[in-house]
Amino acid sequence: MIREFLEFLSVFDWITPAKGFIEDVVNDPTLFQTNSWTFFISFDQAISSGWSPFEIEDLLAKHGIKSWGSQITGGEFFFSVNLEQAGWAEYVLLRYAVPIQENSLDPPRPKRKREQSSGKKHQKPTKDIFSFLDDIFE
């Protein structure tokens, strides 16, 4: 009963979406938000797994990941991170068993500056940093 009442009241909340929009513009000023990645987390699954939105943001911050534009709408908690940190953010969230939704997985990896400027494809190292970190934590 209380949850339904709070969801009804959220219809009148214009401050949170406005704040999220301003944070998106400040942190990723590209026209279509192409330098950021948005993670979606079912609010109910997060709570039942022991994670609140504040704890998730704190977890990311402790690992050097800046997040912004966080909101809870329609039973989903979502936030954005810089595209260059999205892979690391995904790794941290999965490592700590934060139940991120399927459409939040596999952010595109930005190209290295050498690859962007030269047009040549460089040989990919045999292990990336995420595989290396996986080996350390296992």
Reconstruct the topology from this structure.
Elements (H helix, E strand, L loop, with lengths): L1 H9 L4 H13 L8 E7 H6 L4 H10 L4 E7 L2 E7 H13 L17 H6 L10 H9 L1
Antiparallel strand pairs: 1-3, 2-3
Care to describe what's here?
- Strands 1-3-2 form a 3-stranded antiparallel β-sheet.
- The protein contains 7 helices and 3 strands, in the order H-H-E-H-H-E-E-H-H-H.
- It is 48% helix and 15% strand.
- A hairpin with a 2-residue loop joins strand 2 and strand 3.
- The relative contact order is 0.14.
- The longest helix has 13 residues.
- The mean pLDDT is 75.
- It has one domain.
- It is an alpha+beta fold.
Strand order of the largest sheet: 1-3-2
- The beta-strand count equals 3
What's the rounded overall pLDDT mean?
Answer: 75
Shape label: globular
Counted up, domains total 1
Alpha plus pi helix count: 7
Distance between the termini: 44 Å
Helix content bin: 40-55%
Quick one: biggest sheet? 3 strands, antiparallel
Structural class, judged by helices and strands? alpha+beta
Oligomer: single chain
| Model regions low in confidence, pLDDT < 50 over at least 5 residues | none
Strand content: 15-25%
Order of helices and strands: HHEHHEEHHH
Kindly provide the radius of gyration, computed on alpha-carbon positions and rounded to a whole number of angstroms: 17 Å
Provide key terms for this protein.
138 residues; alpha+beta; 3-stranded antiparallel beta sheet; 3 strands; 48% helix; 15% strand
Could you write a compact summary of the structure shown?
The chain is α+β, with helices and mostly antiparallel strands and 138 residues long. The protein has helices at residues 2-10, 15-27, 43-48, 53-62, 83-95, 113-118, 129-137; strands at 36-42, 67-73, 76-82. The relative contact order is 0.14.
